[in-house]
Amino acid sequence: MLNPQYKQYQEYGVDADGKVTHAGVVNAPRMSQRIAKRIQHKWQIWRVQYLSENPGDYPLRNTKPTKVLVIWPLFEKEKKQVFQI
């Protein structure tokens, strides 16, 4: 169950060309540059682990480095924040 102090955020990782590298929903008490960097760090760890267990079966074809995270509270896109990674 979601901690009542946490909110759900929609997040998109974007490369230097503006193409999506990853997307998902994350839970956090608030959003900040530090939390955005932690989300990106966890994504990178997951990507390495997934590729080692499933070589050649990467579900998202864009493998360029993520440069920006665009994040907003779920269903509140007008509150989006952009973080340089």
Model description:
25% of the residues lie in helices and 32% in strands. The chain contains 1 helix and 4 strands, in the order ββαββ. It has a 4-stranded antiparallel beta sheet, with helices on one face. The model has no long low-confidence stretch (mean pLDDT 88).
Mean pLDDT: 88
Distance between the termini: 30 Å
Number of strands: 4
Using only C-alpha atoms, the radius of gyration works out to 13 Å
Main beta-sheet strand count, sense and barrel state:
4 strands, antiparallel
**Helix count, per DSSP?**
1
Q: What would the principal axes of the Cα set say about the shape?
A: globular
Low-confidence stretches: none
Estimate what percentage of residues fall within beta strands: 25-35%
Give, in order, the helices and strands.
EEHEE
Question: How is the largest sheet built, in terms of strand order?
Answer: 2-1-3-4
* Number of structurally distinct domains: 1
The percent range for helix content is 10-25%
The helix-and-strand class reads: alpha+beta
